[in-house]
Structures are given as C-alpha cells and as structure tokens.
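Changelog note: in this version the structure field was regenerated for every chain. One regenerated record is shown below for reference.
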Amino acid sequence: MHHSKLSKTAIIIAGPTASGKTALAISVAKALGTEILSADSRQCYKEMNIGVARPSADELAAVPHHFIASHSITDELNAAAYERIALDTAEKVFSKADHLVVTGGTGLYLKAFTDGLDDIPPIPEQVQHEVRSLFVEEGLPVLIEKLREEDPDYFSSGEIQNPHRVMRALEVVRATGRSIRSFQRSQPRERHFSIRKFAIDLPREILYDRINQRVDAMMQAGLEEEVRQLFPFKHLNALQTVGYRELFAYFEGEYTLAKAVEMIKQNTRHYAKRQLTWFRRDASIQWLTPANFAALPELIKG
C-alpha cells in the first residue's frame, strides 16, 4: 500500500438490515467531522421511503448524506452505475475531509465501491429471449431452480426473490459459462484511499426481533399507503423489494393483510441471513458487537 494512500480513508459500516447501521454511521461521521455515502440499492429512490427504512429527516439533517432519495424508480441503476457515483462522491468529500463513512447493506454495491466491477460481455439476444420466455411461461420458482443448478454460487447469496436479478444471472451463466459472481473482480482495482471495513453482528434472536418490530413500525407509519401509490409501477426493478412485493400481492387478493405483514417479516429475516452470508465471506471485515459499537470512533482515530 502506497504511503500517500493513507491520507484518506473510507470507513465501511456494513451489516444486515435492521442492525443499526444508520445510527452508528451518523455517530462515526459526526466524530470524524465528515459525510455519509449510502450503499443501499433502494434508499436512493425518492418514491420509496418507509419500506426501505430511509434515514429520518432528523438523521439526514445531522450529517450530510449522499445517494439517499437521489434518483427515481424509473432510473436504471445497478452496481456499475453505483461505482461511478460512489467514486465521484468520495472524491468530493475527500477534498474537504480525511474520512468518508460508507454505510448500507447492499453487498454488491459496497464491493463495487471498494474493488470495482468487471465488465460483463454483451448477452446474445437469443439467450435473453430464452430466459425471459422461461420466466413468462414457467414463473419465478422454475427460474430459481434453474439458477440453483446452473449458478449455485449466485443462488447461495444473491437476490433470488428478484426476477430481474435472477434472469440476469441466468443470462450471464448461459452466455459466458461463468457465474455473474466471477465478473465481480477477483483482482481489486487500485483505489487512491485506504479502506477499513466494519460490519455489525447482532445475536440472531435480537436481530430477528428488531426486524419484526421494524416491520410493525413501518405498517404504523403508513407503509400500506406508500406501496398502494406505487402499485402502477410494480413491474419496475426497484420495486422487486421486500415490503413492497408482499403488499402488491395483498392488493391483488393473493394474501390477507395479516399474511402479507407476516411474509414481509419472514422475507426480511431471510434477506438478513443472505446479507450475513455475503459479508462473512469477506475476511477484511472487522465485526462489531453491541459491546464495542461505542468504541468505533476511537478505534478509527487510533
């Protein structure tokens, strides 16, 4: 690592949904006199608020935030677009501060920022058509089953409830013979700053309890109304999201409201589990327990 690299540091605060990343990131950013870049692939959409646990007005006012409510659900965003946005933001923040706090639970976006992404070659139209037809004719469960056979690596830790992501992974493996994961660079790109990664680890019962309570709080805050207004857009990639999909199913008569809420809790717990699987594969992460949270600003300064 070049000596010059050490003058600026990106502090990553990762972890599963509902683990307390937002509050921790704010306290660290305040202690370091800097700003926060979100690495959440959903909080960036201005139409999505309650269901994605976007930071509150008070939280956003406490510290300048980037990539929050910055885009529309009709914007096509992906990890490659995020990499560009994130590096631009880092450059701006580093021009006035020595640290940048990057927080969120979208593992692929964090990886894009820290390591960069490889370019996936263009997918032949025939393969795209084949995969799309399979989805239209057979549905998501069959797609997921094919993915399990053809790309077990993505199946084990990817966003498998999102049809767009599953179709993309299948297209890539069929067109290239490689997992989409293998395009996520094996050799990290050179960055002009150093990176320190932390992730929050809560005991499972506590995490699941927090998730259940958060979903109840979202419902009380008006999640049903937020999702109802987005019903006409339910086909968009941005809305293939836990908390939205289940309520769309309720509006379509597939679930009762109580069942939909139960499904949101269950699917959020599953999502948290997949997030932990992803972060645990990264040996450079320092895990934080509730006992050592408070010491994080000191740990970083030291």
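Spot check on this record: Residues 257-280 form the longest helix (24 residues). The first strand starts at residue 9 and ends at 14.
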